[in-house]
Design a protein that fits this description.
By secondary structure, the chain is of the alpha+beta class. It has helices at about 5-15, 25-30, 35-45, 75-90, 100-110, 115-125, 140-155, 225-235, 250-255, 290-300, 310-325, and strands at about 50-55, 60-65, 160-165, 170-180, 185-190, 195-200, 205-210, 240-245, 260-265, 280-285, 305. It is built from 11 helices and 11 strands. α2 crosses α3, α4 packs antiparallel against α5 (about 100-110) and α10 (about 290-300) packs across α11 (about 310-325). About 15% of the residues are buried.
């Protein structure tokens, strides 16, 4: 059974979550009687925690507005979850420009952990292995990230200063639909108000974001994540590739995901299973072609290259190399 001190800390956590809590609710959560709740509240007040008593039908207790709580208290499981989250976030590149923030936060939590928990955590980290190598990513400014999140939440236009991949700088008005984390980077997708078209921007390339007066309607159709992936598949790159592949959508998507290629599904003939193998048009825009022959070989499905001819030459060259290797005795 929890000791009184533990229940007092639990009471503080309940009040910290916000709103007014009735005596009956607190008594039920703490497993005590109403008068005991009042005694615990007195203990918090003695510790200079400003707990307010709210009268009336829906009255109870709450923390004074604007009160900043003392240092955060975490259970052993909560501390472990936070530390593992910080480690995973650093490896995935999902941090802000203040990269040391996650490191100092980890150090602060580890510093106050009980010794036996700290030892167990060290053992976990020593035995933990990752199948991927930590990446080096350009990360967004924390103020920019929070400003965009606020604009998304309240559907407010944004003025952003953006630098594209060629180093060109511009100032844009953006109706931001959402923030998306993908492959170790942060993106914001929305309508560029000047040209009236949807665009996706990397947050690390946004130097400043300011909320503007006004509002806009939430768009219909795909969500922000799907819009970002679709934008990658149709981005303006050096080569435009068009293929016809004989197979199911699932077989093709296993090697050419939404972020890489767009698929055009043909109408199934009468009586044909919609999931049956059939010819599907695949379109990609890529900077380089050298990786595509290997993907097509791994796909192991009949295909036709419509364009470009350069890709056809690369596929034939790969096939010749494989055939020559296979004939070696």
């Amino acid at each position: 059974m929890p000791r009184p001190t533990g229940r007092v800390l639990t009471l503080l956590e309940l009040l910290q979550s916000g709103g007014t809590r009735t005596v009956a609710e607190l008594a039920d959560r703490l497993g005590v009687e109403g008068r005991t709740v009042r005694r615990y509240v007195d203990h918090l007040i003695d510790l200079d925690v400003p707990v307010e008593s709210v009268r009336g039908r829906y009255g109870g207790y709450r923390l004074a507005p604007g009160y900043r709580l003392p240092p955060l208290m975490l259970s052993d499981d909560e501390a472990l979850a936070v530390l593992l989250g910080l480690i995973a976030g650093r490896r995935a590149g999902l941090t802000t420009t203040h990269r040391t923030a996650s490191e100092t936060a980890s150090a602060k939590i580890r510093r106050v952990l009980p010794k036996h928990i700290a030892r167990r955590l060290d053992l976990l980290l020593e035995t933990l292995a990752f199948t991927d190598q930590p990446g080096e990513f350009d990360t967004p400014d924390a103020d920019v990230l929070l400003a965009i999140a606020d604009a998304v939440r309240h559907r407010r236009p944004l003025s952003i200063r953006y630098t594209d991949r060629d180093g060109r700088r511009s100032e844009r008005t953006l109706h931001a639909y959402g923030i998306v984390a993908h492959a170790g980077r942060w993106y914001v997708t929305g309508k560029d108000a000047r040209i009236g078209e949807d665009r996706t921007f990397r947050l690390d390339r946004i130097a400043d974001a300011r909320t503007l007066p006004g509002s806009f309607e939430e768009p219909m159709g795909p969500g922000p994540a799907q819009r970002v992936l679709s934008g990658f598949a149709t981005a303006d790159y050096r080569h435009e590739v068009t293929l016809r592949i004989h197979g199911t959508v699932e077989q093709i998507r296993a090697h050419l995901p939404t972020s890489v290629a767009s698929l055009e599904e043909y109408e199934a003939t009468t009586g044909q299973d919609e999931e049956a193998e059939r010819w599907i048009r695949v379109e990609l825009r890529v900077e380089r072609l050298d990786w595509l022959p290997r993907v097509l070989a791994t796909l192991d499905r009949p295909f036709v290259i419509e364009r470009p001819d350069e890709l056809r030459d690369l596929v034939i060259a790969l096939a010749d190399r494989l055939a020559s290797y296979g004939r070696r005795g």
